[in-house]
Write a structure and sequence with these properties.
The protein has 11 helices and 9 strands. It is α/β, with parallel strands linked by helices. The chain has a domain of about 210 residues: 3-Layer(aba) Sandwich (Rossmann fold). It starts with a strand and ends with a helix. About 5% of the residues have low confidence.
């Protein structure tokens, strides 16, 4: 069984997907204390290191590496994506998270895992252009003799109910490896996209600011009276353009025409727009419930990230939203985990023959 070390694990989206695929979770690392609480609750048998990776010596995981007893090892390095996002708010030279991939390199170079998986926003490979963290990571992989493939993929093509573009990389020291083929693309004869309805329609109705008594994390953010009126005036799939003028924001009254997704409602029978760390805030994207007068709940956001219903989140409302928005969708990780497991099985079979 392939043994997983999940760097920048967050609350455990990648880990859950890999576990569903049949991989064995050995160790996870993240410096977010709420994400640590969530992870440890859901993966009690996995060692969690709640530290900043810049402060961790590579020797700290040596005992866990030895425990794998020559089984194939996968290092997952899905660093926080905000520095590379179109929505970044800090200048690139002020955000230390840009260099987290360089920290991941230290562990790869020391332990030479048989497999590597990276998921991030597409901007990762463009930052600093030639000298980007991504380019220097590829240089290291070449130097160490890894085979690799990377591409910008759409999450909805792999069964995730979100229009979410991601940069993904898979690498192996055992043989040539490629990105798995998409499973969903109705316009090209593949399966239908997964939709908002598929994942959240069965959840019971709640009001804005309410938490369901029986369903864990089915809790939504409160809304002001004005925002309640705004969402009542917004049809399924609609946005602020549907409002009467007295509900417009000052910037829109002054002629600003951008950001039409904010205050928008999702559509039942389409994938959602990509969830962010503010995915339960009506004013921060198309995060309105398709027909209830509120933004989506924590549980609904988790469902749209394809977390199972029994996955429990810890922390306050904003922290849980941040954990979910930062997570790799479980279904996406599962597809890649299955793909990597098949790659190893094929390679192992050739070696035995």
């Amino acid at each position: 069984m392939i043994k997983v070390f999940d760097f920048f694990s967050g609350c455990g989206g990648t880990s859950k997907g890999f576990k569903n695929a049949g991989l064995d979770l050995i160790c996870a690392i993240d410096n977010d204390s709420d994400a640590a609480a969530t992870y440890e609750h859901n993966f009690p048998d996995t060692t969690f290191i709640n530290q900043d990776i810049t402060q961790i010596d590579t020797e700290e995981i040596s005992s866990h590496i030895k425990s794998c007893q020559n089984a194939p090892i996968l290092f997952s390095g899905c660093a926080p994506c905000q520095p590379f996002s179109k929505q970044k708010t800090q200048k690139k030279d002020q955000d230390h998270r840009i260099y987290l991939l360089n920290e991941f390199k230290r562990f790869v170079a020391k332990y030479l895992p048989q497999y590597i998986f990276i998921e991030n926003v597409p901007g990762l490979q463009k930052l600093f252009k030639k000298d980007s963290p991504f380019e220097t990571f590829l240089t290291l992989l070449k130097k160490l003799g890894y085979f690799y493939d990377y591409s910008v993929i759409t999450s909805q093509s792999f069964g995730v109910p979100q229009r979410r573009k991601r940069l993904v990389l898979v690498a192996s020291s055992l043989g040539e490896i490629s990105i798995p083929k998409p499973a969903c693309d109705p316009e090209n004869g593949l399966g239908d996209y997964s939709t908002v309805r598929d994942w959240i329609e069965d959840l019971p109705a709640i009001n804005a600011g309410e938490e369901h008594a029986l369903i864990a994390n089915h809790r939504s953010a409160a809304l002001s009276n004005k925002n309640l009126e705004r969402i009542r005036r917004t049809p399924e799939g609609g946005n602020r353009l549907n409002w009467p003028k007295h509900l417009w924001l000052k910037c829109h009254l002054n002629g600003y025409k951008g950001h039409t997704d904010v205050y928008g409602r999702m559509k039942w029978d389409e994938p959602a727009t990509g969830l962010t760390t503010r995915c339960i805030s009506l004013s921060n994207g198309r995060f309105g419930h398709p027909d209830q007068n509120r933004a989506i709940s924590i549980r609904e956001a988790a469902c749209l990230q394809t977390f199972p219903m029994d996955f429990i989140f810890k922390g306050n409302l904003n922290s849980m939203a941040r954990q979910i928005g930062n997570a790799v969708p479980v279904k996406l990780a599962e597809v890649f985990g299955t793909h990597i497991l098949k790659h190893y099985s094929d390679i192992h079979g050739k070696i035995q023959n």
